Input
Amino acid sequence: MDDALQPREAVKRMAPYSPPTAGREGKLRLDFNENTVGCSPKVADFLRTRVAREQLAIYPEYVEAKAELARHFGVREEELLLTNGTDEAIQVLMNTFVNAGEEVIILQPSYAMYRFYSELAGARVSTISYRSESLAFPLEELLRAITSNTRAILISNPNNPTGTAIGLPEIELVLQAAPLAAVLIDEAYFEFYGATALPWIARYANLVVSRTFSKAYGMAAMRLGCLFSDARNIAFAHKAQSPYSVNMLAALAARVAIGDRDYVSSYVAEVLAARDWLCGELDRLRIPFYPSAANFVLLRADEQAGKICKRLRAAGVLVRDRSHELPGCVRVTVGTSEQMQRLVAELERLWT
Ligand SMILES: Cc1ncc(COP(=O)(O)O)c(C=O)c1O
Output
């Protein structure tokens, strides 16, 4: 038999990324920063009872969903691209604005898919580290790193996994320093943080903002993201996107989800209260942690990190060991008060 096909050089060089998505059902899932309860019951009811056979036979059509989502987010339809999760938004951004060999700046540690799609596009990846100790946003270091060859800067705000945020004045400095680069502000955790750069798409032609239905909305399985930017950028991005990449069910479900604002706001309020309570308990247990602006908290378990994650897993509680990027750190998703009580009870039992 002939040799297997040879992949592109960029694919050969990429590090594989395979998050631990198997065997999570039935466990307390504090490992992916999802909504730990589920989506709005209205969304689930709609999908169960209101989707007609005929609708499933037709290629998706996004006109109405897009109009409603644009209204919901306060943008013009031409300023919005629906995507198959934020992940596709990042990929489309790369495919639209970055040639192989051009530079993309990412922060370290941050959301793994930034490096993934940058490397896949054959970009030259330049990495800036979050400040040691505080894990604060390294603004001066980033501003110094921007060159005329920088085509994209990918920022998660608040950042996963550190939980730290960058303020709007600092975002403005980045936008002004990089007029030739697409500056992505990934607002996956916006609902828990509350500050947004979205209105600035009218002011800065290099600003791109993303939002997702995977986190506070509890619809990670549906895969729906939104990319916002100047209408001219969105027109190019639309050209670089497959015409049917967003599932019709996701587009239909999103319309129901945005109609049930109370569900998301009460879930967010519950998580924020549970986060405060959890942080108080971590202080009581003398477990060091980083203050977070999102629905997760990064704990410092030092040499215990691997052991704690394994023991929690054995007790039915899933968390994420981030030691490969922040030695000794474990990230836990914040869910309901009841779920946090269970986590704290297990930590109290297992932490030595
Ligand atoms: C910063 C950030 N952006 C995006 C995502 C994924 O979003 P989506 O499910 O919309 O692809 C995550 C998921 O963990 C994330 O942490």
